[in-house]
Amino acid sequence: MVKICCIGAGYVGGPTMAVIALKCPEIEVAVVDISTPRISAWNSDHLPIYEPGLDDVVKQCRGKNLFFSTDVEKHVAEADIVFVSVNTPTKTQGLGAGKAADLTYWESAARMIADVSKILCTNLWSAELSKLAANAFLAQRISSVNAMSALCEATGADVSQVSHSIGTDSRIGPKFLNASVGFGGSCFQKDILNLVYICECNGLPEVANYWKQVIKVNDYQKNRFVNRVVSSMFNTVSGKKIAILGFAFKKDTGDTRETPAIDVCKGLLGDKAKLSIYDPQVSEDQILRDLAMKKFDWDHPAHLQPLSPTSNKQQISVVWDAYEAIKDAHGICIMTEWDEFKNLDYKKVYDNMQKPAFVFDGRNVVDVKKLREIGFIVYSIGKPLDAWLKDMPAVA
Ligand SMILES: NC(=O)c1ccc[n+]([C@@H]2O[C@H](COP(=O)([O-])OP(=O)(O)OC[C@H]3O[C@@H](n4cnc5c(N)ncnc54)[C@H](O)[C@@H]3O)[C@@H](O)[C@H]2O)c1
């Protein structure tokens, strides 16, 4: 029987291996990790991460051809194929701090593999650059369409129509062309920063600057969103309740790493807003920790992260229901494209809000026309502006 071992039972290793086990019953899959609590969680009824259907897949395979274990050496030694999916955070100190990848965890995994099994060699730099380039190209598409969204708002164009038009060109293709409040997730920013660092180390500042711009546009998009919120609401959100719908970096996950919601919430908190945050899959503890954490801290082990969750707790409440978050709010910011946000009873939502009632849709999920008919003032990224917003400066 072919045996696979995956080192790292995280967001990547766990679900990927569970699906391989499901689809390939003839293969035995072991997922190993140095974290005992993580492995215990994978072996329990409360898996450490959420993805739709993951519980079922694990239940079907666990104990048959899918195993979770802390006995790393044993499973690596027995395996025909070894996957490594350990964390590779951005360095926070030393050479390349803030940009280069911290390969401590990777190196320790690689040394262990070298000790217990054979290694095949390929061209190292091709392998490294392919991974970085794939993520950089994807992130670049998002920043490109987000840059267009700002121009669409300024001119009266509709970014969805522009995306649809250019997506019909087979050289461009329709995927990854949705405008939004910005990209997030554990890899895009980190891999681009790493690419920038490699370019700089190789004496290629122009190339480094080119890729840096992809991140700058992403940061610009998040700032632009906060500015729209503040400037639309009479140039002040101080003391106003704002509902934050969604916190994860995309729908169908509880993953909040580099989620644009963090920067948007921090921006609004900086302007003294009161936030009521709801995400169907993210815990209060996670949200408070994310809002207290410094840049890049999230990708380091828990014992290196801040102990006290947050200093601005008075301004933040985390609730378990969208309607509760919205009650008496002046505005709603949609940060994640969860399906349930498309199907809320917006008449009921409107009736329970302060007036004028604002919706700032960072994911273009709501039916703008319908909401405006109910009475909302709606801002939708890259779409023709509400009459109310037209008279407001884009920057607070
Ligand atoms: N599309 C992509 O390219 C993409 C997307 C997401 C993540 N990633 C990459 O995949 C890797 C894993 O990401 P993740 O989100 O699953 O990380 P994660 O933090 O969720 O999980 C990593 C796990 O590795 C474990 N670990 C660390 N060192 C170990 C060691 N020496 N032996 C055994 N276990 C060890 C940790 O305890 C942790 O549970 C990262 O390098 C990340 O950059 C790539």
TrEMBL record:
The active site is at C187 (nucleophile). InterPro entries: 6-PGluconate_DH-like_C_sf, NAD(P)-bd_dom_sf, UDP-Glc/GDP-Man, UDP-Glc/GDP-Man_DH_C, UDP-Glc/GDP-Man_DH_C_sf, UDP-Glc/GDP-Man_DH_dimer, UDP-Glc/GDP-Man_DH_N, UDPglc_DH_euk. Its EC number is 1.1.1.22. NAD(+) binds at residues 8-13, 33, 38, 86-90, 187-190, 257. It holds the Pfam family UDPG_MGDP_dh. One of its GO terms (molecular function) is UDP-glucose 6-dehydrogenase activity. It catalyses: UDP-alpha-D-glucose + 2 NAD(+) + H2O = UDP-alpha-D-glucuronate + 2 NADH + 3 H(+). Keywords: NAD, Oxidoreductase. Coiled coil: none annotated. It comes from the Eukaryota. GO terms for biological process: glycosaminoglycan biosynthetic process; UDP-glucuronate biosynthetic process. Pathway: Nucleotide-sugar biosynthesis; UDP-alpha-D-glucuronate biosynthesis; UDP-alpha-D-glucuronate from UDP-alpha-D-glucose: step 1/1. GO terms for cellular component: nucleus. Residues 243-368 form the UDP-glucose/GDP-mannose dehydrogenase C-terminal domain. Belongs to the UDP-glucose/GDP-mannose dehydrogenase family. This is UDP-glucose 6-dehydrogenase. It comes from Cajanus cajan.
